[in-house]
Amino acid sequence: MLKTLGVAGAALGTGSVISSPSLGAKAPKGSGKNNQNPWIYAFTIGDVEAWSISDGFLDIGQGLNLMYPESERGEMKKALEERFEPTSSLQMYINILVLRRDKEVIIFDAGFGIVDHPDRGWLIEGLERIGIKRADVTAAFLSHTHGDHMAGFIAPDETPMFPNAAIYSTPEERSFWMQKTHDFSRTKRDRKALDRMVEVAQKRFELLASQIQPSPTGSEMFGGLVTVEDGFGHSPGHAMYRISSAGETLLNITDIAHSDILMFRNPKWVIGWDHDMGQAVETRRRVFKQAALQRTPCFGFHVPWPGLGGIVQRGSEESYDWAPRRLFWG
Ligand SMILES: [Zn+2]
Fold first, then answer.
1. Residue-wise pLDDT tens digits, 167-186
2. What does pTM read for this prediction?
3. How many angstroms is it from 269 CA to the middle of ligand 1?
4. 160 near 211, Cβ under 8 Å?
5. pLDDT above 70: residue 18
6. Most exposed of 19, 58, 177, 231 (fewest Cβ within 10 Å)?
């Protein structure tokens, strides 16, 4: 097996890319997955088949105005420019990790769902293209309640998108949103939007009530294949997942980073979407430090597709690079 990232004994298997049906066709701008670029990447983790399916992408026009501290936006701009990145918007990917072991099909978050938007909601078609129907999904993890992760668990007619799946979420996440009053004192989110956010989260939890099951941090599931880890801060019960199979590991850092540059360059730079910015920073510092020291292969929900890479410390500073893993067509 080829070893990637130079990670002794821990690298992932080779991968391959499935391109979209209109390969070679001239696609109009903004045609999302119907353009000529691939959006499904197949690889392995030990004995387990794995895919990264893009659910689409986000181009957030607020750009660096969404990042804090405000006084360091100049430095953030420089960090983006240095890497040839646009500075007028924040571009984020929506990477969904899918695992299959025998009859078990496990997805990590569900993207936007079926929506009338060319840039979003590609997961279901992606699953179909690798032969997985909605009813085949046996288990799912909901890392947190934001729309890009949770909306896709519900079909447009408000029935479950994956009717045979147990959906695991941390007890802290569900209990925060379902309580009557909410402490939003440590977020920069627009106060006017918070009531609506609570209403939407509660409705989604209610629609999914028969499927949701608590998975506290530390839970080892599927015979140790998935361990739920504490990623608290971006949301009250924000979860990460460590996948382990036959001596290989992949740490799904979910929303610990919304950029492959900013949060790595300085883990204290935060996005205004964090629920508790201080806690999000502490979590990120702990996760990055450990993943860099242990050279753990990682998967990120919002970093460039397919989201596979590693975290490398830059010199002696508390500053890191996201090192994307090479793509393979083997
Ligand atoms: Zn997200």
1. 999 999 999 999 998 888 88
2. 0.90
3. 16
4. yes
5. no
6. 19
Q: How many whole angstroms from 111 Cα to the centroid of ligand 1?
A: 9
- Cα(148) to ligand 1 centroid in Å equals 6
Q: What is the pLDDT of residues 74-89, one digit of tens each?
A: 999 999 999 999 999 9
CATH number, span 16-21+32-324: 3.60.15.10
Contacts of 158 (CB under 8 A, 6+ apart): 207
* Ligand 1 ion local residues (Cβ < 5 A): 148, 255
Distance CA 194, CA 135 (A): 33
In angstroms, what is the span from residue 231 Cα to ligand 1's centroid? 13
How far is the centre of ligand 1, averaged over its atoms, from the C-alpha of 306 (Å)?
Answer: 15
C-alpha 305 – ligand 1 centre gap (Å):
14
Whole-angstrom distance, CA of residue 323 vs CA of residue 309: 5
61: its two tokens: 């026009």
Q: Where are the domains of the chain?
A: 16-21+32-324
